[in-house]
Design goal:
ten-stranded antiparallel beta sheet; homodimer; alpha+beta; about 350 residues; three-stranded mixed beta sheet; HIT family, subunit A; globular
């Protein structure tokens, strides 16, 4: 019998089609089937030596003092084909019965490594921490722009997940409004808070640790688990165990710890599902709620193993063919067996 | 400058990235690149002669009197791998902090033609009308089941759009709750009604006919246009010009007229975009609002030309790279030039 599960935050129902239950080997989407990438690609605009082909950098972690040269290990640049334009005012206006405004915002690329063939499943823990630190730096810089209300940090991995360039990179888009999905999460969390006077994500952390059937991995301060009403097979959430509304409130020490958990999880996902295409997004509090008792930041990893089709697009109800409990078990088993020595030293 | 446009119903913002503006030939997704289909496929479970390989039919339009034989032209069967199970009660219950119920519902397949290689872009107007009539019949039958609150009729065309079988078919899923996207549309339409005391879709029909920049085609009682805040390039809506809440309220005469407009539009979409993969869904009123002054049924066609990725999945904000006004112009130009004689006679 399939099961209908309700997302306790957004109240969205999800169909868990247990009888169609799919194991990792049943999924055929894999970015491993794409040609193997070299460490350096002469035609790649993000590889070292091509600094002149991107818009001038807005941040880089490098050894020397000169901008736009090749001694960097993480580099952030404006997107050459931005979805939103950095210049201009909103100019909100009506157009007949409709509402419109200028597409003002920021759209940046975080180039995660000089090496063309690295990604969060294979890079060093140090490199991962540097990437997350760059997210934070760019967030804090763009946050000063009073035209913006929200910043989404996200990653598209593999062609099926919408990545148009191979070189490892994440993206960030600052928007002049709070995105509807964030609004819906806040409304849901507010309803819960009014009833229980507790943060729903804090309750979820306690509940998942107690139940211990959907937990994948944890560190002292961070938890990775499969949410009860997962929309996608192997959907995974990473978040702080103690309440924190804004991603950018992490200290350097915590960034290093969180990046270690990311490295662990992306390694598991890659081993378990044969390097699947995926997206991730960091849901953080809007600027005006960075100290909120209600919102709790979380990273959502969405492997692209199945295709959302007419039913999902017409109803908002997702059909998930792997139970979160099964997915958690597979990911727990996919632990790295020959642990490479993890370098935790940080030099910025 | 990109433009932010607000969906007047759901209040969702969409980014219309005018400067990335893509023409039909810029999109490479095409189901025409899949191998050409024969009129009959010996391995296809939906081709005539294979009636025994599907679950027993629940409806068929055929010449003879015997069920499950090969003289049909439209045939409806339960889905062999249903997302929701037809037997059982809901058994709503709590599970720790979460809510769950049995996945009870109906999941049926409408086999649109005995010919393996037909589809709404190529079938006769008569055949299209018979398909839509079958939608209505199945809707009215399942509507009697008191466990259900909503029925979605939808279609997945091409592998990229989630179709697992080539043979032309649509699907229908009856759900025991009103889907969240429908709830959101109703809430939006209610807000508008409270303010204006008019149906927002009726206003949209008038506005679009007046503006005449997003209209693609029309018949006496039905309109096809590109919505102002289209989420997808070439997103197209078909709906009655006069108020009607439920799709199932159409008379036979109107079904024939509406099917003619569908045939016209799917032909245009196919010619314009080289047989693209697409989904469509019919948004109709929930059972308890079939006489609503607020809800107005509409069919939404969503070509799958771009990939929704981390940004869309993390915010709910879609990036559309073709303006609806451009899309409308291309679809207006894609009119069928050598009109095949349209048979309007109907024999059921």
């Amino acid at each position: 019998m399939p099961e209908l599960r309700k997302d306790p935050i957004t109240q969205e129902w999800v169909i868990i089609a247990t009888e169609r239950g799919r194991r990792p080997s049943d999924f055929t989407q894999s970015s491993a089937s794409e040609p193997e990438r070299p460490e350096f690609s002469p035609t790649c605009p993000f590889c070292p030596g091509k600094e002149g082909t991107t818009p001038p950098e807005v941040l880089a972690f490098r050894n020397g003092a000169n901008s736009n040269v090749s001694d960097w290990w993480v580099r952030c640049v404006p997107n050459k084909f931005p979805a939103l334009a950095i210049e201009g005012e909103l100019n909100k206006r009506g157009l007949g019965m409709y509402d419109v405004m200028h597409g003002v915002g920021a759209h940046e690329v975080i180039i995660e490594s000089p090496r063309h063939n690295e990604d969060p499943a294979t890079m060093s823990a140090f490199q991962m921490a540097e990437v997350v630190w760059a997210y934070r730096e760019r967030y804090l810089d763009l946050r000063k722009d009073s035209r913006f209300k929200y910043i989404l940090i996200f990653r598209n991995h593999g062609k099926v997940a919408g990545a148009s360039l191979e070189h490892p990179h994440s993206q960030l888009i600052a928007t002049p409004m709070i995105p509807i999905d964030v609004v819906n999460e806040i409304h849901g969390a507010e309803r819960y808070y009014q009833f229980h006077e507790r943060c729903i994500w804090c309750d979820m952390v306690r509940h998942e640790l107690e139940q211990a059937v959907r937990v994948v991995s944890e560190t002292e301060h961070y938890l990775a688990f499969e949410p009860f009403a997962s929309k996608y097979p192997f959907e995974t959430w990473l978040m702080p165990k103690s309440h924190q509304a804004s991603f950018a409130a992490m200290t350097r020490e915590r960034v290093v710890e969180f990046a270690g958990l990311m490295r662990d999880i992306f390694g598991r996902v890659s081993r378990c599902l044969n390097a699947p295409p995926y997206n991730f997004a960091i849901h953080t509090a809007p600027f005006d709620r960075e100290d909120s008792d209600i919102f709790h930041w979380h990273m959502v990893i969405m492997p692209r193993l199945t295709i959302a089709a007419g039913f999902e697009m017409g109803t908002g109800i997702y059909i998930n063919v792997t139970t979160p409990e099964d997915a958690a078990r597979y990911l727990v088993e996919a632990k790295e067996t020959t642990e490479a020595p993890i370098t935790l030293e940080v030099s910025v």
